[in-house]
Specification:
The chain is mostly beta strands. The chain is built from 1 helix and 8 strands. It has one helix at about 1-15, and strands spanning about 35-45, 50-55, 65-80, 85-95, 100-110, 120-130, 140-150, 155-165. Strands 1-2-3-4-5 form a 5-stranded antiparallel sheet, with no helix packed on it. Strand 4 (about 85-95) and strand 5 (about 100-110) form a beta hairpin.
């Protein structure tokens, strides 16, 4: 009997956690003159949920041998009660394939539309430079990660990352 009452309490709390209000972030707006470069929906096994992903940026020709652009990758996660939480990573990227050069500046990430019963912690912005197979094109990865914890202490880790190569390839 006690186990049934405890189970009922946990289920009620889990529903309540995902059904209460949202907060907004002043940076949630779209980029000025943005262009959508890619969109996809995929199943994330770690989150056990569908995630909508979108890459946007300033209008540029990503096939140019050199260039620069402000690029943003956004993911959304829908809580069980329907609240759509959005998290993103962005930066100003510069690349030059002839000079074997890639860089990022003004990198940042954030999360908004978080249910009021969920707290966000462990916000980390990580920038890593690399090279494919140690001899091919250089790239830079920018990742924003965080932990969401509900009011009964259940935590879930989230992350979003964007990679830009010296050829201007974005993923």
């Amino acid at each position: 009997m006690k186990k049934r009452i405890l189970l009922a309490f946990v289920l009620i709390m889990a529903f309540a956690i995902n059904s209460v209000g949202v907060s907004a972030d002043e940076n949630q707006g779209e980029l000025l003159n943005e262009v959508v470069y890619s969109e996809r929906t995929y199943y994330d096994e770690e989150l056990d949920a569908m995630v909508y992903e979108k890459i946007t940026g300033t209008p540029i020709d990503l096939r140019n041998i050199s260039g620069s652009a402000h690029l943003r990758k956004t993911d959304t996660y829908t809580w069980s009660a329907g609240t759509v939480m959005t998290y993103y990573v962005e930066g100003d990227f510069t690349w030059d394939d002839d000079a074997d050069y890639i860089s990022v500046s003004n990198a940042r990430g954030n999360v908004y539309n978080v249910p009021s019963t969920v707290s966000i912690s462990n916000r980390v912005l990580d920038i890593e430079y690399g090279q494919y197979f140690f001899i091919f094109n250089k790239y830079v990865d920018v990742e924003f990660s965080f932990t969401a914890t509900n009011m009964i202490g259940i935590s879930q880790d989230f992350s979003v990352s964007i990679r830009v190569s010296q050829e201007g390839s974005v993923s």
